[in-house]
Amino acid sequence: MKTKDRQYKDLIQCILDYGERVSTPQDVDALTCFGTAKNLVYDLANGDPIITERKMGIKAPIAEMCAFINGEQDFDIMKEKFGVPEAFWGPWVVDRKTKKVGAKKRCLGDGSYGRAFAAFPDNEGGTFNQIENIIRMLSDDKLKNRRTIYMTSWIPFMNGWGRNQKTVVSPCHGFVHFRHFDGKLDLVSWHRSADTLLGLPNDMISYTALLRMIASVTNLIPRRIIYQLSDVHIYENQIEEAKEILSREDKILPELKIINKKERIEDYRKDDFEIIDYNFHKAMKISSAV
Predict the structure, then answer these.
(1) Residue 64 lies inside a defined structural domain of this protein
(2) What are 10-41's pLDDT values in tens digits?
(3) Are the beta carbons of 54 and 62 closer than 8 angstroms?
(4) Which residue range forms the structural domain that includes residue 176?
């Protein structure tokens, strides 16, 4: 029997109760908990981490992950080929922001997620495909029990306004650690920065889809996903929306299912997934801070 899940609401309550008010680059203050948020632990047997407190569209975050797996950073291609909606990255790839970091028109930049995932700059002047390497290790009986099946979205010299900023926004997530347990696969998804109301629920879907895709092509069973949140925050213009979410009843989590199995992870698209038993509260318009 599945049990109702309230981890997401507990996280929101924790931020409202204990968050420190800080200024942000978006010029909207936020309530922030740094390093103190409890891990969100989801056993997929009890449902996938797709929040029920408001209706979520599952296809858009899956489309984004599929684009990143393929190394894409041109947002127009992400839209046309993969189906990523304009709202996801449109406000970030305006000319003012792309020119500031030397990115091509309508591009996220060379230090973005897609480039890091599939074409990370190596020490020999070439690139390294981290997604391909994860699949290689999990498919090898001699390697799949290693603790080193890890991926990072962070290219240090291209992010964080260090030496040479090359992204319109430094990656907020994409630090992932896979672990194999007797034919089952777990994933820890670590988030540098988590916009709890707007970005995080979408990111939870993205990495659940990634876990299921990786498990599918390596013939493993996806078991558990854990979200570790470093800087987790609610923007000041989202506080009333956060309180509304807290007032809503807990529900059973749904299941995200692959309906068209692929041999190559690069071939997955958003329509290869469906959501089952999704009982949600009505949709909400969440304020953004860009």
Answers:
(1) yes
(2) 999 999 999 999 999 888 999 999 999 999 99
(3) no
(4) 7-276
